[in-house]
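Ticket #4471: structure export looks truncated?
Reporter: QA, pipeline team
Priority: medium

Steps to reproduce: submit the single chain below to the structure queue and open the exported record.
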Amino acid sequence: MLRLFALIAVIGTLIVGAMQFTASAETKGWSTYDAREFAMAQAKGETIVVDVYADWCPTCRAQAPILEELRVENQGKGVKFVKVNFDNEKAFLRAHRIPRQSTILVFKGETEVARTIAQTNRAELRRVVLGAL
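Actual output as written to the record:
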């Protein structure tokens, strides 16, 4: 019985470790939202793609590889990619009238130029984001 509990504990530790590795790999190359940095980027007129996500959101997980593909394609082109945690950044959500997670925004400076909510169709999500860049 003790061996069974030890085995379950080891498997649980491996699963949690793998999930943490995956989460950190997905955010590599992305900026985590910081109000001051975001405002400075907007003031400079930068193009910013914002992914409003939640760790528990299946739609967000479906969007993640598409957004990562867009980020990689636009490296070195002056586009900033920012992740905003839906559960933690309530002031950002209120300021930009974001009703739910899985919302993608594109800003040029302080102007929002595109928005899509819960879009998981690869072609459509790419069209919205690339059309705004």
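Status: closed, not a bug. The export was complete when the record was re-opened. Leaving a note from the reviewer for reference: Residues 12-26 have pLDDT under 50 and may be disordered.
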